[in-house]
Write a structure and sequence with these properties.
CATH superfamily: HUPs
Strand content: 15-25%
Number of strands: 5
Strand order of the largest sheet: 3-2-1-4-5
Distance between the termini: 51 Å
Bound molecules: 4'-phosphopantetheine
Number of domains: 1
CATH class: Alpha Beta
Radius of gyration: 17 Å
Helix content: 25-40%
Length: 176
């Protein structure tokens, strides 16, 4: 048997990491020896959390998962995957609406580097509608997100809104 590790990259913005992401990480760990959560450095989207915060939050949320590594990347995802010797990109597929973008991305990545395979994993049904964007919006409008994200995210969101400098888009109507 080969001693080579089956390593997968799970890329994304993770702004912030949600229970849906953690669900995909745990499914990935059933199939791969190691899952690298790769957080995109230069996102077109203006992130709520800085790169350093997203890394810290993801590290804290994944604490105890020994085969998970948190890293950052910029440039092409396939180049990053080659650098870390991962032959698989894992993406969560929630609904048909995700499919078109994910399909384009997977085929573009294959065109860029045919040695890297994309594997789609479906999250638990209860997370099939969950996104970081929606979590931020629900929290901002005073909704309860505590069952949708790990506790560290709730703490960070609260700290952000309770702190002296309220960043854009975090003013809340009420307590979450
Ligand atoms: O969580 P997201 O925002 O859906 O993640 C998107 C991500 C980071 C996976 C994607 O934007 C990406 O891979 N960016 C790196 C640039 C790249 O490789 N582009 C070519 C393939 S589309």
């Amino acid at each position: 048997m080969s001693s080579r590790k089956a390593r997968a990259v799970f890329p994304g913005s993770f702004d912030p990491i949600t229970n849906g992401h953690l669900d995909i990480i745990d499914r990935g760990l059933k199939v791969f020896d190691e899952v690298i959560v790769a957080i995109l450095v230069n996102s077109d989207k203006r992130p709520l959390f800085s790169l350093e915060e997203r890394v810290e939050i993801a590290r804290s949320a994944c604490r105890g998962r020994r085969r998970v590594r948190i890293d950052t990347f910029s440039g092409l995802l396939v180049d990053y995957a080659m650098r870390v010797q991962a032959e698989v990109i894992v993406r969560g597929l929630r609904a048909i609406s995700d499919f078109e973008f994910e399909f384009q991305m997977a085929l573009m990545n294959r065109r860029l580097n045919s040695r890297i395979e994309t594997v789609f994993m479906m999250p638990a049904e209860s997370y099939s509608y969950l996104s970081s964007r929606m979590v931020k919006e629900v929290f901002r409008l005073g909704g309860d997100v505590s069952e949708l994200v790990p506790p560290v995210v709730v703490r960070r969101l609260r700290a952000m809104t309770d702190g002296p400098h309220r960043p854009r888009g975090t003013r809340r109507k009420g307590r979450a």
